[in-house]
């Protein structure tokens, strides 16, 4: 079964209200990063034991563990849960980053080290949530140039030179795009 079919089934098996909200968030994430790799995790480990809620993933990130092991995983995750919806932002080094950067603007949401939980999309500022997604998905996402505010921001990002005094495009990039989300190209 294809990932697209699994995602459609997962969204369709939710309550009508939650299904509508998940479908809207799914479309928004795909609009920000239309070429992102899609994932569907059914919440089971290799032994078939349920260890988490099923979730939809977007993008690809290499996670490194303290043991030295690495694993491919998604950058953004979306999951329904008993109390609402969770959005996961993977690969953050600073566990306070989401709360400190977006907490005051996001709305009524619980924010942990890498998770934003809310009861309904009506409770959060969807523009700020889209900003979180665009920042996490990184350069090349459709929302990245909106966040950076420059149509040729990708050329600025690819430059290996640090920002120079008076270079407003580079300065704008480094001010508006948090370093924690900048990845090597």
Descriptive tags:
185 residues; disordered C terminus; 7 helices; two-stranded antiparallel ribbon; Aspartate Aminotransferase, domain 1; 6-stranded antiparallel β-sheet; 8 strands; alpha+beta; single chain
Write up this protein:
This protein has 185 residues and is an alpha+beta fold. It folds into 2 domains: 3-137, Aspartate Aminotransferase, domain 1; 142-185, no CATH class. Helices cover 37% and strands 18% of the residues. It is built from 7 helices and 8 strands; from the N terminus they run H-H-E-E-E-E-E-E-H-E-E-H-H-H-H. It has helices spanning 3-12, 16-32, 97-106, 126-137, 144-148, 153-158, 168-176, and strands at residues 38-41, 55-58, 61-64, 70-73, 76-81, 84-89, 110-111, 115-118. The strands form 2 sheets. A 6-stranded antiparallel sheet has the order 1-2-5-6-8-7. Strands 3-4 form a two-stranded antiparallel ribbon. Helix 3 runs antiparallel to helix 4. The longest helix is centred in the first third of the chain and has 17 residues, at 16-32. The radius of gyration is 17 Å and the shape is globular. The two termini are 32 Å apart.
């Amino acid at each position: 079964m294809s990932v697209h079919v699994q995602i459609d089934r997962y969204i369709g098996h939710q309550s009508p209200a939650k299904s509508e909200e998940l479908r809207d968030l799914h479309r928004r994430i795909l609009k920000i990063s239309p070429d992102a790799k899609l994932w569907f995790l059914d919440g089971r480990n290799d032994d078939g034991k349920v260890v988490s809620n099923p979730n939809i993933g977007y993008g690809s990130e290499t996670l490194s563990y303290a043991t030295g092991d690495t694993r491919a995983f998604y950058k953004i995750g979306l999951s329904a849960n008993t109390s609402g919806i969770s959005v996961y932002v993977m690969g953050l080094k600073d566990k306070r980053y989401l709360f400190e950067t977006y907490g005051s603007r996001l709305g009524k949401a619980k924010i942990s080290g890498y998770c934003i939980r809310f009861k309904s999309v009506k409770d959060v500022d969807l523009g700020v949530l889209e900003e979180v997604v665009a920042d996490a998905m990184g350069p090349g996402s459709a929302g990245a140039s909106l966040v950076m505010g420059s149509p040729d921001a990708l050329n600025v990002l690819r430059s290996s030179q640090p920002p120079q005094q008076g270079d407003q495009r580079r300065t704008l990039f480094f001010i508006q795009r948090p370093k924690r989300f900048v990845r090597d190209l």
